[in-house]
Amino acid sequence: MDDYTIKFNFAKDSKRSTREILSDVYRSLEEKGYNPINQMVGYILSEDPTYITNYNNARTLIRKLDRDELLQELLEYYLGIGQQD
Hints:
This protein is mainly α and 85 residues long. The protein has one domain (17-79). 55% of the residues lie in helices and 0% in strands. The protein has helices spanning 11-14, 18-31, 36-46, 58-62, 67-79.
């Protein structure tokens, strides 16, 4: 049995923008036949991860986003203020 340490690099995902993550989650939900907007709204309101499919690691991806920051970013984007991706 080899005794060595495995190093994991999470930097790739940490540099993904909110828009990229939401787009990937949206596509995964759509591919599985769900209504992506309804599912994502349900998740944002409740923070219940079961609204998001595990397909393509969508649930893991969306949980990387802080819900409060996500809501702030969505409002800023909608209102056309603040920084946008």
